[in-house]
Write a structure and sequence with these properties.
heterodimer, A: mainly alpha, about 0% strand, B: Cytochrome C3, two-stranded antiparallel ribbon, 5 helices, 2 strands, elongated
Chain lengths: ~220, ~130
């Protein structure tokens, strides 16, 4: 297990991070070039003010009509996304590894709190799964890949949860956890998980068009 | 008769106390984590004598090293000190924090030797 662990947390982690940062930069640059090529006029009404106004409303729970219309979804999606981002970044055992590898460290969550946040992510993933399977309007826009990316996102948290509690074969679960994290990082730029990169742009575009062209609110 | 009993009893208690202290030294099963205010993990499993026998470590300074002015002092060891006497919780400059000192001392060697635990939960057993 020594060599497998060192492989997934060494070379494979490097590849995952390079794909994540390189791929993200590539996707954003490519998107901007495409807009420049095909719909250059969009730049004439892009506005910082309307962009930020729209982003600001949509990142606050219940600050938009659509958030208020779907209160359960709103609570779940905010809890899910906050925990999804914060848990791995501020997890003590992750920061310990950053410190050992690069002598950099930052504030960390208490383990008991990270444990609860992990459960929130897992329950959120289950909620999204059930939603995709049962709600007709969601089912209609769901394809096989949506289930795959949901699994890609859930996997590091499920394995992390098992590893933290040392259930089943710990070394194997631990290696699978690192592998699952590598896969998720690398998948972000190249799957629908790229909404992590594009959502601010989409929001900025919508906000600008509604604000500057239609003179209307988009929340 | 009462006096004899009293002397015998106090002797017995003295011997038991002395022995248990000696035994507990020998029977070290975890790393002392008393220096941590709010430890997030269980103390690391470490059976001192068994480990060193298996790992064939005779030189105390292999782990109980001594640094002066950032330089390793050869042929000097520090097993009469607590790790926390030099390694504080924050760490400074080249002096790693207590957590990092423990981790790099144990895990670093395990990585070099390609033997022994290297993942969090292999030492911090729940």
């Amino acid at each position: 297990m020594h060599s497998f662990y060192n492989f997934v947390s060494g070379p494979l982690a490097w590849i995952a991070f390079i794909l994540f940062f390189g791929g993200s930069t590539y996707r954003i640059v490519r998107m901007l070039m495409l807009v420049n090529e095909k719909e250059k006029f969009i730049f004439t009404y892009m506005s910082w003010r309307y962009s930020l106004r729209s982003i600001f409303h949509w990142i606050i729970p219940f600050a938009t009509v659509n958030w208020r219309r779907q209160p359960v979804l709103t609570v779940v999606t905010f809890a899910f996304h906050i925990c999804l981002m914060a848990t791995p970044i501020f997890l003590l055992s992750h920061v310990v590894l950053w410190d050992e590898a690069f002598s950099i460290s930052w504030w960390t969550l208490p383990d008991a709190m990270a444990d609860v946040m992990t459960v929130i992510v897992i329950l959120g993933a289950v909620y999204f799964l059930v939603r995709r399977l049962t709600l007709p309007e969601v089912k209609f826009v769901t394809s096989g890949s949506d289930f795959v990316i949901l699994a890609i996102v859930a996997a590091p948290f499920v394995t992390g949860f098992f590893a933290y509690h040392q259930w089943l074969s710990y070394p194997l679960i631990m290696c699978l956890h690192v592998l699952a994290g590598d896969i998720m990082l690398a998948a972000i730029p190249f799957t629908r998980l790229s909404h992590m990169l594009f959502s601010p742009f989409t929001r900025a575009y919508m906000g600008s068009e509604f604000g500057k062209v239609r003179h209307a609110r988009d929340w | 008769m009462r006096n004899v009993t009293l002397i015998a009893l106090s002797l017995l208690i003295g011997i038991v106390l002395a022995l248990t202290t000696a035994w507990s030294q020998d029977d070290m099963t975890v790393v002392d984590n008393a220096a941590f205010d709010n430890p997030q993990r269980t103390p690391s499993v470490f059976v001192h004598d068994e480990h060193n026998e298996m790992a064939e470590i005779d030189d105390c300074a292999k782990c109980h090293h001594l640094y002066e002015d950032g330089k390793l002092v050869e042929d000097e060891s520090s097993e009469d000190q607590s790790c926390s006497e030099c390694h504080d919780l924050e760490g400074s400059g080249d002096q790693p924090s207590l957590v990092k000192a423990f981790h790099t001392n144990c895990k670093g060697c395990h990585q070099e030797q390609k033997k022994g635990p290297i993942m969090c939960g292999e030492c911090h057993i729940k």
